[in-house]
Design a protein that fits this description.
Serine Threonine Protein Phosphatase 5, Tetratricopeptide repeat; mainly alpha; repeat; 402 residues; 21 helices; TPR-like_helical_dom_sf; Mito_RNA-Proc/Resp; globular
């Protein structure tokens, strides 16, 4: 069109091409087309630039977005709007570059833009996620004082979440009370943050009070609500109470997710209730909507090995593979040590070789149990000839983060 026939696209057609390439995930092609806009004498609307930047950030290319954005505004190829700045600010906050986000907010006035509620929400959330919750709270207070751009439930919840993650539950509740006094109703996310925060510090009484207040205000709980309560009870060793909450989920017609299953199964295994853990694992395997992951199976395999039931543990391993779940380094480590404890060294060596073939580096597991792994490695390489008694390891199973 341009080379052979000498036609130049207009702004509308070029914007259509850019949007089409972006939708087709041809992001570099979109960027190239936009870079030619000035050559064609076109001024493409900000929408096309914003959509491309959002897609790039969604694929983790934040640094590319910042470079493109700064080049575009320097060359004056388009006029960024509030959405443009919000997209870039959200991207840099996602990678922890909050200072860069603050600089971008300061530059908005140059282009006739003013930060809106979304801008401030992104900024507050970014500050709180980088452990600068006091600065995030100050932004919230400033918004309340100025009255120009009023905070909403998202702004308050971000600050509440920041204080909860820092273990400052009194400050979190103070912000919550301030929000309610301001006439802003908390939502499910707000309550979930508080319930999870109290559960993490072992204050189950307060967590239950927040849950009861949630139900009184007819704010519907979700799977995160119940998972947080279950996690709190499990952390305090109150497994039967956690199982009661598990049963309550059915009354609310809420299905447990992969993390709910993992929390309960892990806690059952800690209390050597392997039969119940296997029962839940079987229930999980019947759920087509949940993709099984190794961190759910590993505690069951571990508790069976520690009880000497290594063949049952291996059956669990085979079951997870049948479900399309690949064993990880912890799975193999548990089995290697379990079979060593039963003096079945040849099978331990077999798992060692299988681990290596699966791409799990032996070095990655030596930190937790050097004697056992060294023993198997020497046997696997022919460097040891005698079978020795292997002490029971203290394997730390990784717990999922909600």
């Amino acid at each position: 069109m341009t080379t052979h026939y000498g036609y130049s696209p207009d702004a509308r057609f070029l914007s259509f091409l850019v949007s089409s390439c972006t939708c087709a995930n041809l992001l570099d092609a979109s960027a190239t087309l936009l870079s030619k806009a000035s050559e064609f004498g076109c001024r493409v609307e900000a929408y096309a630039y914003n959509k491309l930047m959002s897609s790039l950030i969604g694929r983790g290319r934040v640094h590319d977005v910042v470079a493109l954005f700064e080049r575009w505004i320097q060359d004056r190829v388009y006029s960024p709007d509030v959405w443009s700045f919000n997209v870039v600010i959200k991207g840099v906050c996602r990678v922890g570059q909050v200072q860069k986000a603050l600089e971008l907010v300061e530059r908005m006035n140059e282009f006739g833009c003013s930060p809106d509620t979304v801008t401030h929400n992104i900024l507050v959330d970014g500050l709180c996620r980088t452990n600068e919750v006091s600065r995030g709270h100050e932004v919230l207070r400033r918004l309340q004082r100025d009255g120009v751009c009023m905070p909403n439930v998202v702004t308050f919840t971000s600050v509440i979440s920041g204080y909860c993650k820092a273990g400052k539950l009194e400050d979190a509740m103070a912000v919550y009370n301030d929000m309610v006094a301001s006439g802003i109703m908390p939502n499910t996310v707000t309550y979930n943050v508080l319930i999870n925060g109290y559960g993490k510090v072992g204050d189950l009484g307060s967590a239950v009070e927040v849950y009861q207040q949630m139900t009184r205000l007819r704010c519907p709980p979700d799977v995160v609500t119940f998972s947080s309560l279950i996690d709190g009870y499990c952390r305090c060793g109150q497994l039967d109470d956690a199982l009661r909450i598990w049963s309550d989920m059915a009354q609310h017609r809420i299905q447990p997710n992969v993390y709910t299953f993992s929390i309960i199964i892990h806690s059952l295994c800690k209390q050597n209730r392997s039969d119940e853990a296997i029962g839940l694992l079987n229930e999980l395997n019947l759920r087509p909507d949940i993709a099984p992951q190794a961190f759910i199976y590993n505690p069951v395999i571990d508790v069976l090995c520690k009880c000497g039931k290594v063949d049952e543990a291996n059956l669990i391993r085979k079951g997870m593979e049948e479900k399309g779940c690949r064993p990880d380094k912890y799975t193999y480590t548990i089995l290697i040590i379990g079979y060593c404890m039963k003096s079945r060294i040849s099978e331990a060596i077999m798992f060692f070789h299988e681990m290596v073939e699966a791409g799990c580096s032996p070095d990655s597991i030596t930190a937790g149990m050097p004697n056992e792994v060294d023993h198997v490695m020497r046997l696997a390489s022919g460097g040891a000839s005698s079978i020795q008694e292997v002490p029971s390891p203290d394997i730390q199973i990784r717990e999922p983060q909600m």
